[in-house]
Structures are given as C-alpha cells and as structure tokens.
Amino acid sequence: MIYFGAAYYPEHWPEERWPEDIRLMKEAGATVTRLAEFAWATMEPVEGQLDFDWLDRAIDLLVENDIDIVLGTPTATPPAWLTQKYPHTLAMDEYGRPAQHGLRCHYCVNSPEYHTLSRQIAGAMAQRYGQHPRVIGWQIDNEFNRICYCPRCQARFRRFLKEHYQTLDELNTRWSTAYWSQKYTDWEQIPFPSPTSGHNPGLLLELRRFVSDSYRRFQAVQIEALRPHLRDGAWITHNYMGWFDAFDHYTLAEDLDMASWDCYVRTGHHDRTTQAVVHDLTRGFKRKNFWLMETQPGHVNWASINNMLNKGEARVLAWQAIGHGADAVLYWQWRSAYGGQEQYHGTLIDQSGRPRPFYEEAQQLGKDLAAVADLLGGTEPAAQVAILNDYESRWSMSWQRQHRDFDYVTHLLNYYRPIAERNVPIDVISADASLDGYRLIIAPVLLIMDEKRAQALADFVKAGGHLILTVRCGMKDRANALLSARQPGPILAGIAGVEVADYNILDEPVPVGGGWLTGQSHQWAERLNVLDEDVSVIARFGKSNGWLDDQPAITVSSGHNGLLYYVGAYLDEEAQDVFIDHVLKTAKLKPPFDTPAGVEICPRTNAEGKTAYILINHERDRKVVSLPWKAQEHLGKQTIDGTLDLDAYGIAVVTKAN
Ligand code: GLA
Ligand code: ZN
Questions:
Q1: Model confidence pLDDT, tens digit, residues 464-476
Q2: Of 18, 353, 607, 623, which is most buried by a Cβ count within 10 Å?
Q3: What is the number of domains present in the chain?
C-alpha cells in the first residue's frame, strides 16, 4: 500500500480533544501518523522520570481507528532542564557563542553527554514501543543541519585528520600547505574554519567529511539504542531536506533502512522537474523506494512569500512523489497549534478544530490511495538513465565557483530537465554506486576523480554504455588538490580521446555550433584537444575571445564499444534540448508512450514485471492523452479505449487491459 497521513502532536492538546482530531483523521482516509519527534519534555518532564502513559493512550486511540504509527526520537528538541543541567551539550557558533534553548537542533553533535542522554530517551521509547505491532517505523531526530564549532568538536576534528593522514608530512603535502606558509608542525595548529571562509580547499573538504562523520556517529548511537528492541520489519529512517548539502547523505543513509524527505514548494508554485529530481535523489540514497515524511498542506510559514498552492496542486505534488517512488505521503502538520513558532503554517485542521478547505483535497488523496493500494503496493520506478551526484564535487565547486552564477544543482538540472520532460525515467545516484544495468550515465561536474571512479566509468563505456562527461569533470583528487594531469584525468582522457587544453570562464555567452547543433555556452567553456581518430567533433566554439574561436567544444568517442561524450560547454536550454534529444535517440531511450506537453508519465513496476502508469497533468488546462493500448483506469474505475481526458491538475493511474 501507499501510506497517507500527517504529523500529529497530541501533546499540544487537552486529551478530551484527541478523539475528535483522530476521527477527522480517519475520515480523511489517513493510514499513518508520525508522533513524538518534538515531545521530549512531555515524555521526560523531569530528568529520569519517564511518562509514556499519555503516548500509550494516543497510540491506542489511533490504533482503534486503524492508523499506523511512526515514532520520532525527540533529540532535535531537548527539554529545558537538560540544557540547564548539561550546558555543555549546546552547540557553539563560529565565534564560540553557545546556541539558545528553544529552537531546534541546538545540540553539539559530538557531545558525549548528549550522546548518552539521546541513547537513554531513544532506548526508553524503543523498550516501550519497539514490539508494538502498529508502530511500523522510526525516525531519528529531525532534519540534521548544523555545524558545531566548540573546542571538543575542534579537538575531534584534529583526531579525525590524524586518523586519516597519519602524519603531518602527508597532510602538508596533500593540502599544499607551503602555499601562504600554512605548513603545520603540530596537529593543534590546524584551524576549524567555517565552510564559507575561503580557507584551504583540502582543509574545507575534510571539514565537511568530519561533519558527515559526526552526524553518522550520532545517528548510529540512536540506531544502536533502538535496534535491539524493534520487532522484525520495523524500519529506521531520517527525514532529509532535499538538496541540502551540509553532510554527505550517501554515507549517512548507509546505516538506515529507508530514506525519507521533507518536500516544500515554499514561494510560488511547483515546478515539475525541480520537484521530481529531489524524489529521484532521495530514492538514490538507498536505491529503493522512500517516504515523503512531510509535505505542505497548502502553504508554509517560513518562505519569503508563504502563498497558498492552487487548488489541486498539492494533489499533483503527492502523486508525483508516489510516481517517483514514495511509498507514503504525510502532511506537515495535522492541526494548527495556538502557540509556538509555526502558528501560520498550513494544516488540515485549523485553530477552531474544524477542517480547513484543504482537508477535502487531502481526503480525495486518501480515497484515491485506498483505491490503488493493491495495485501500487510492491511496485517501484525503474530507470536506464542515471545522473551521478557527488557531494564532494559539489562542495569543492561551490567554494570556488569562478562564476558567481555557476550552481551545481542548476547545472545538473540542465541535463535532468530535457530527459524528464520526455518522460524517460532517471535515477540520481552516488558517483560511487554500481553502474550496472544503465544504458546512459551522465556525470555533471564530477570534479573529484580518483582511479576507482575513473575506472568504473571507463569500464561502463567499454561494456557498451553511453557516458556524458561535462565541464569541470575530472579536475581534482580526493584531497581537493588539482590532478597533475589535464582534465578529465589520464584514464578517462584515454577513453574520451580528448583532453581539456584550457578552461575559460565566460562573462558573456559564446556561440557553439556544429552540423545539427547551434546555441551558446554560458559561464564556462573548455577548449578540447582531440587525441585520437575515433573522436568526432559534434560542435565547436564560434568567434569569441580568440582562444576559443573554432576550437572543439563537444566531442564523442566511439572507439570503445560504447560512446563517450565530452561536453566542454554549458549549453543554453534550447541547444541542450537538441543535444539531449540526439543522445537519447542514439541510446534508444524512449518514453513508454507520447503525451501532450505538461503531462508526466511515472511508471511503477512490480516484481512480476506488471507496470502501473501514473499520469499527471501538471498544468491548469485539460489534456487529452492517446493511449497506445486498451487500458484500465483505476481512480475513476473505467476502461479506456483510445483517449483519456485529464482535467486541470488531473491524475490517472492506468494499466494495460488484459
Ligand atoms: C520542517 C520540520 C517540521 C516543520 C516544517 C515546517 O520540515 O521538519 O518540523 O517545522 O519544516 O514547514
Ligand atoms: Zn561541538
């Protein structure tokens, strides 16, 4: 089944009110609720005095209404007595100032005291509810996000470096510390700067690795406290924040059973591809289906303009998440609290305790999901195209952009968008993941290149795969130092049959053209040297700064079973569309069937190979879709022979009729 529900905070309300809240939940068709992730002060009002009775009663009431439970460990919001008694659990900012109580995630992630206290509360919750048949999953903390600069974290960082580099000689060499007299003669001399400080590139990359490692250990403390008490089948997750990049999500996700994320449109309206790519990103963390742990019921309270989504738009968002592999959609939050920092956030039940107009839209989703529970249960998306994502390359690039507008995610989207708009499914996976089973791999700005990565990509092409390397690929090693060879590094230059003679940062776009491709490159241009005869030049730079004039910009090498495109240009949208169209056709990658523009097809397939197609009209006018076969439509329960009508923001779930 696909779960549907909301985050609910019974601790905000007098107990007499719970039955009505939960009745409305049931009436909306909710099948799950998330509880307790900010309730530490209610579960442990005084140190060591646990009170779970209220939570027992809330859970009982939910279960009576046939609603399953996800429990959150409450470590994002420690109680005030804890902060008072253990002030050293507070995080410090860059200037050594401790955080304030009453916000969130204000703990030092490396505090042994906080580890102990977190282990105790998570363990106590798991002892109480780990075997509960209706507690189906656990969320650790809530949206990890900060860096602590306290003396303990600094000391740990130096220890981390020592473990990694063993000797200062090694560290000094890898970080080129002769530069500006940075040479360290004692581990204690190594600073702990902010990631935006413009410090040594090697140091900054290690700092991000250290932050990732710190959260991974904090998360592991809680996993170890929970796991022994959990019944078989109960999963553990953490709710991530999309493209947020303070830590490496792949390493943290390794220890979880499932990934989940919190999806908010913020200001304005949804954009089909910018939402879709994050679902694909999150699915890539564990390379399997995920949960949409939070999403916005209409509007948020923290964007620059907290506008309401259009009627029907949230329904589109929910189905798109499901289409990309979400096995649950939970709104945040069920009911508006009278006080607290989020009074103005969208909810399903307002301050008067009555359903808001949005409730009806959610109820429709509940009904629809019940209708396709059997059909979609156990299905998942499958893709033959993968885009590689790499946090280290992203960090490295972002610290040294060279062009203020060069943004890692925007550049990645320049590849994702034309493929997604053609309804060709895409996986977004770690640059270190297995590449088996794909026909086309795109490595946008895979800046950090080591032998293992390069070899895996080379092997992929040798086995017949099609690979695109883009601008800024293969420039640096794992210590964020420039490689001693030209881009894209020795192994890949051998397969690509090109090397980058020079990169030019562009203040003005330059023309790019060839037989079937004309357009412009903006921000960045790489002048390519062709090294061998299996290479065709697809496009050259036009007249520009003299250095680039008439030089190869995009090439393809066909000498190794597969194809390797080297794209030394950052193409404008139109030219990119033409280029990607060519690449997809050459790789024989097609959508399941044609649709009018604005209609997305999301296939989900089960283990027996049976596919359900979720059709989504992202636009506000009616669309007519011609289906290539006789179909069953499962929301309106009708047989379709020929064309299917999709209303504004309309959704259909179809399978081939037998
Ligand atoms: C985040 C948090 C929630 C809530 C929402 C509001 O995603 O996890 O607790 O604050 O934002 O949009
Ligand atoms: Zn700290």
A1: 999 999 999 999 9
A2: 623
A3: 3
Boundary of a domain, candidates 354, 376, 398? 376
Strands 518-530 and 498-505: antiparallel
Distance of CA 35 to the CA centre of its chain: 23
pLDDT digits (tens, 9 = 90+) for 344-370: 999 999 999 999 999 999 999 999 999
The parent domain of residue 297 ranges over 3-89+102-146+209-376
Pocket residues: Cβ below 6 A from ligand 1:
142-143, 262, 264, 294, 300, 332, 342, 345
Ligand 1 atom at minimum distance from 301 CA: 12
Q: How far apart are CA 514 and CA 273, in angstroms?
A: 28
Q: Does residue 152 belong to any structural domain of this protein? A: no
Confidence at residue 286, expressed as pLDDT on a 0 to 100 scale: 98
Q: What is the pLDDT of residue 125?
A: 99
C-alpha 188/C-alpha 204 separation (Å) is 17
Nearest listed ligand to the Cα of residue 331: 1
What CATH number did the domain enclosing 431 receive? 3.40.50.880
Element at 463 (helix H, strand E): none
Instruction: Specify if 195 maps to a domain.
Output: no
pLDDT of residue 658: 80
Q: What is the pLDDT of residues 208-258, one digit of tens each?
A: 999 999 999 999 999 999 999 999 999 999 999 999 999 999 999 999 999
Contact (Cβ atoms closer than 8 angstroms) between residue 105 and residue 142: yes
- Examine residue 408 and state whether it is found in any structural domain, yes or no: yes
CA distances from 110 to 133, 168, 214, 220 (A): 34, 24, 6, 12
Instruction: List the structure tokens of 367.
Output: 């009904």
- 235 is a domain residue: yes
Q: Where are the beta strands (DSSP E) in 296-342?
A: 326-331
8 Å CB contact between 222 and 119:
yes
Task: Please tell me whether residues 456 and 332 are part of one structural domain.
Answer: no
